[in-house]
Every structure is written in C-alpha cells, then in structure tokens.
Amino acid sequence: MKRLLTVLCLLLASGCSQKEVDAAGSSLASAAPEFANDALIVGQIEGAYVTIDPASALHVAVSSHDGVVSLTGKVRSAPIRDQFIAAAKKTKNVKHTDASLAVDPNLPSAKDQVADFALAAAVQANIAGQSGVNALGVHVVAHAGVVTLTGNVSTPALRSTIVAAAKGVAGVRRVADRLDVRS
C-alpha cells in the first residue's frame, strides 16, 4: 500500500495530467491485492515463528513476492529451522519457499535480546544527554553488558565524553570504543 501511495504522489508531483494519474492509479490498484497478499503472507509466517521460538524469530527475515517466500537469518537449532520452513510452506497462498537459515545454538534468548536492547537504549539516552546533537553520529550495540560504540565524532574530547557517558550507565560491564575522530 505504501508503494501505491508513493507512486501516486510522485505522479502528482511530477506534473502528470489527471488522466495519466488516473491510469496509473488503476494499474496500481489492480496490483494492490498482490502487495496486500504478500504482506499478509509475511505477517502470518512471522506470527507462526513467534509461537515456535521467539528467540529465533527475532533473527529471521521473511519476505514474499507473488507468493514466493524467502527466509534468511539464523535459528537456534535444526529442528527449529525445519519447523520454520514447514510453517512457511503451509501458509495460505505460498507458492514456493526459499530458505537460507543457518543454525546457531548460541543465539541469545528473547529475554537476553530485550535486555540488550534496553541497555543500548539507556546508553544512547545517556550519551545524548551528555553530548546533545553530537550523539547523532554514534551507534550503540549492547550484548551481555558489553557496549560497542561506532560512528564518527568531531573531537577527541567529545569521544572521551561519549565513552564516559556509556560507562556511567548501570549494567554496562565494558565499553568497546570504535569511534572515529573526524574533524
């Protein structure tokens, strides 16, 4: 649906005649059910994955085009991989499934992933509080209390401020500073 609206807006903005916009709208409207069908397929598959294994579901990307489903990412075990593929294949309107799912028994649990996300958000907030808009170029990732900072900063002093802000957040065990100073 977003694609349909985007194309129509572009046509209107480009100065097309009303007749041309109407023709394009009709053409796109006839394709809209296919877009909606693919979105429905993806939603149903992702919903099934959450019930099978929430931790693995967070690491699998699902896409669909004309009922051809692609699965990429990682799962915690071979049986989970097999269940994910079977769930995709039995979803209504799926014509074919391409799966590239690697098994990684060390994937963190859903609870651990939520904790990592919350820690990264707290660090990002503290950095923004200490450095303001200068934090926009900093990307924060957390895993089991280890926070990795990447991105660009303008001065060594700003870098020190950002690293100190990250270290000052409860739950941070260590900070991996991978910031680049670029003036």
Task: Tell me the Rg in angstroms.
Answer: 23 Å
Number of domains: 2
Written as H for each helix and E for each strand, in order along the chain, the element string is HHHEEHEHEEHE
Euclidean distance between termini CA atoms: 43 Å
Count every helix, treating DSSP H or I runs of 4 or more residues as helices.
6
Number of separate strands: 6
Helix amount, in percent? Answer: 40-55%
Note the quaternary state here: single chain
Indicate the CATH architecture of the largest domain: 2-Layer Sandwich
Report the CATH C-level class of the largest domain. Answer: Alpha Beta
Q: Can you tell me the residue ranges where pLDDT is under 50 for at least 5 consecutive residues?
A: 4-14
Q: Structural class of the helices, strands and pairings?
A: alpha/beta
Strand content: 15-25%
The CATH topology of the largest domain comes to GMP Synthetase, Chain A, domain 3
Mean pLDDT: 85
Report the sheet with the most strands, covering strand number, pairing sense and barrel closure.
3 strands, mixed
If strands are numbered along the chain, what order do they take across the biggest sheet?
Answer: 1-2-3
Overall form: elongated
